[in-house]
């Protein structure tokens, strides 16, 4: 019985360790993130990706981006009473991807579409600033990795946060960019229900 328990534990560690494997993601441990207070699992593969921005000043260095992600998580958990940080992943001005709630957890359960989608957030304000080529490359690499690891459906769709609720997120410049992509979904009515 003890051997079976050890085997099951090893399988869990291998599976959990592989969740972000080969995606180049800065883990929660690396940016000193808090453990979620509750967890709800997404049905995978996920078919919808929501792009948003933080509407904050950008971060450009590893230390500044880690500090910004910690600050966002603190605000989401302490003030908004979310279970965890409200994004699956965040992309800094340093073009690194930071683990939020990750591939398998619901990010913000209060909105119905979050049980069907991954929220990917660009750190900064993209109303007047364009995301860098490196940030866009980081996003596209993350999405490819999600598909190849079975987290994202190969026919996933992308929407801007503003299509689902009254907000200017992901910012005019970023929104204009993602609207040109082949994964773009114009009609989001089925996801709002």
TrEMBL record:
State the superkingdom.
Eukaryota
Q: Where is the Peptidoglycan recognition protein family domain?
A: 23-165
How far does the signal peptide extend, from start to end residue? 1-21
Q: Which UniProt keywords apply?
A: Disulfide bond, Immunity, Innate immunity, Signal
Question: Which intervals hold domain N-acetylmuramoyl-L-alanine amidase?
Answer: 34-171
InterPro entries attached to this UniProt entry? Amidase/PGRP_sf, Amidase_domain, Peptidoglycan_recognition, PGRP, PGRP_domain_met/bac
GO MF terms here are:
N-acetylmuramoyl-L-alanine amidase activity; peptidoglycan binding; zinc ion binding
Paired cysteines (S-S): 23-145, 59-65
> What biological processes does GO assign it?
innate immune response; peptidoglycan catabolic process
Q: Which residues form a coiled coil?
A: none
Q: How does it assemble?
A: Monomer.
Q: Which PANTHER family match?
A: PEPTIDOGLYCAN RECOGNITION PROTEIN (PTHR11022), PEPTIDOGLYCAN-RECOGNITION PROTEIN SA (PTHR11022:SF74)
What family is it from? Belongs to the N-acetylmuramoyl-L-alanine amidase 2 family.
What protein am I looking at?
Peptidoglycan-recognition protein
Taxonomic lineage from the root: Eukaryota, Metazoa, Ecdysozoa, Arthropoda, Hexapoda
């Amino acid at each position: 019985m003890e051997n079976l328990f050890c085997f099951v534990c090893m399988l869990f560690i291998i599976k959990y360790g592989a969740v972000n494997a080969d995606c180049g993601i800065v883990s929660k441990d690396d940016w000193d993130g808090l453990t979620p207070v509750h967890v709800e699992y997404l049905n995978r593969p996920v078919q919808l990706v929501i792009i948003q921005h933080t509407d904050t000043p950008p971060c450009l260095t590893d230390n500044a981006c880690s500090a910004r992600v910690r600050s966002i998580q603190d605000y989401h958990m302490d003030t908004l009473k979310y279970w965890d940080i409200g994004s699956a992943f965040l992309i800094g001005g340093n073009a690194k991807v930071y683990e939020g709630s990750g591939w398998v957890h619901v990010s913000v359960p209060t909105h119905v579409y979050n049980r069907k989608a991954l929220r990917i957030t660009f750190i900064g304000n993209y109303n007047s600033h364009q995301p860098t080529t490196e940030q866009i490359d980081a996003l596209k690499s993350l999405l490819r990795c999600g598909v190849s690891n079975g987290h994202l459906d190969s026919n996933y769709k992308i929407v801007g946060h503003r299509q689902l609720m009254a907000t200017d997120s992901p910012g005019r410049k970023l929104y204009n960019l993602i609207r040109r992509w082949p994964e773009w979904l114009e009609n989001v009515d089925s996801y709002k229900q």
